[in-house]
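Following up on my earlier thread - several people asked me to post the actual chain instead of describing it. Fair enough. Here it is, all 370 residues.
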Amino acid sequence: MKAPAAVLYEARTPLRIEEVEILPPQRGEVTVRMKAAGVCHSDLHVMKGDLTMPMPIILGHEGSGVIETVGEGVTSVQPGDHVILVWRGSCGRCEYCAGGRPALCDMGTAMRFTGLMPDGTTRFRNAAGESVRHYAGVSAFSTFSTMPEASVVKIPPDFSFEKAALIGCGVITGVGAVINAAQVRPGSTVAVIGAGGIGLNIVQGARIAGARQIIAVDHFARKEADARRFGATDYIDVSDGKDPVEAIKALTGGKGADFAFEAYGSGKTTEQAYDATKKGGTCVVVGITSAADRAAININQLVYAEKTLRGSIYGTTRPRTDLLTLIDMHHAGQLLLDELVTSRHLLGGINEAYAALQRGEVARSLIVFE
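Reply from S.P.:
Thanks for posting it. Predicted structure:
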């Protein structure tokens, strides 16, 4: 089959909307007809060249859709099922999967860095007959996409595709980092550096966990309203050069936060989150940055102040169960989803959607396919 997709041929150039051939699913694979896809900063890192990937490639990792066809041996879904994409597919058998940490599975890691299916091939071809790589095993910016069965989770048919797409990355990553990685306790103080799509979900995760003070930090004044809507009690605008570490300490009696989250993606903001963590506190790095970026950490603080520094990918979750739990949390009124969406674009407007993301104009944008 042939269908439109957004293809990246070279870093620092616009995505090209063109018709590609989607090859049928092989054993253990499915083809998904995409319904909605999130405009996430992780794809932007590839577009800007901060993260290198083999090209040409079809980006997009936060999405939802309908199963179009299935390959031999597929048992968890059938044509017509509604699904959320899992951008960190896992084998279910390795030490990480068996230990409850499927986001660290080598299968998902290999798909992420090679742009290939687990068998070492691709399921996309362009008009010239060249192979086009997959992103994170799913390539949500293609109208149809073939992927491993492990890259989809069946969801209730009455659940909104737009909400499902949001849950698939931004929500599970942010909320999961709070609940699973940091294990924020009721009554805690929390600081979040970066109030984009991931940061806002860290904020609402902290609210759900019962934090008494939630401080959001960003360099766009317009993000204060979003941060407070999701649960922030305080907002620090650093667009004027204000030191976020000193500002966070001023709001916490000079101590710093019990839990500090880095959700922007840079060595500098990682240092700031760490320095803003109080004695005995935990700093969690969630943002993705350039592969060459480094952070300078004060080792004495790590020892004498007994701080904990850790990372979290995909919310340190078990997506196949936790995605469904998040749906239940939304139905129960705990989890905000509609409020995340600032704008919607057809696939042809994807470059403008990313330009708006860079200008700090959105909480989350969606690509809708119909």
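The mean pLDDT is 96. That should answer part of your original question.
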